[in-house]
Structure of Small ribosomal subunit protein uS9:
Amino acid sequence: MSETQERTGTLADLKDVVPTAPEAPVYEVKRDAQGRSYATGRRKDAVARVWIKPGKGDITVNGRPVGTYFARPVLRMLLTQPFLVADRYNQFDVVCTVVGGGLSGQAGAVRHGISRALTHYEPGLRSILKAAGFLTRDSRQVERKKYGRAKARRSFQFSKR
């Protein structure tokens, strides 16, 4: 009992000890010499390299305007979601290059890259974008085809006769 008291002291001494909670990490601004922020976004097999800088809201994908590259309005809506949630619509120009996957995966990769680049440009937006789920990489992949099956899970048509 005396050894325990020597190590910890009395209860009165413990009352004065204030527990310290770990501080939240401080995220710093990451910009290059031209004032741009860079991030990589991924979705399925698509990888997007995204640069954002202050501007009028122009989005360029692989050297083409977003309206011609992503013709479907749903895919264009995906790209603008991070700006709408962060209340920064038409305040940043986006230049990105995308490789791999299909159009849906590429749009998801660009959205992920835009969200990450926004957090590098303005670290205060991180909590808003994280709550909306834009900073989480969607890890779902296409299931592989199995032998003895028509596709990953579909069987060949069965005929009794």
In short: The chain has a mean pLDDT of 89.
